[in-house]
Amino acid sequence: MVAESVAGKARLREYETIYVLRPDVTTESAAKIANRIEEVVTREAGKLTLVETWGRRQLAYPVTKFKRGVYLYVKYLGKGGIVTELERNLKMLDDVLKYQTVKVRDEVDETGVEINPDDVKFEEIQPPGEDETEESRERALGLDESAAAERRREYEDDVEEGSVDALGDDEEDS
Question: Which domain holds residue 55?
Fold first, then answer.
């Protein structure tokens, strides 16, 4: 009798996926990725329950030479195949650096889940500000022309102040 009632009702599971986009992702590209996620969840007979944009954050380690990324969190209901299809789609997108899905609960009754329409809207991702741009490898190593010119100006200022002599030795050391 219990087996009949379980077989008659769709067994949904609750999942959450966190995915990281490139820090220089365009607004249009982020919108396309959001639309793709909504499309996959709908096509696989699932329901989005929560979408959060966590913003640009430092990565734990560099991923394809990026030190920062745009984090997004998606919570949804669906059957087991929804995760496979969603991750397959995320893998194909160039702007997605990393993703991870976790099963939160088994056998969720979808009638008991209340979904606020404002909670399932993807926010528009703003382009990075000037202070958020990635430092190039050349600049970090001091090989960039502007970095070399800046060091030269600092040295010349120190020589004029007298804190460094023309040979580069500190006055205090002599």
Answer: 2-128
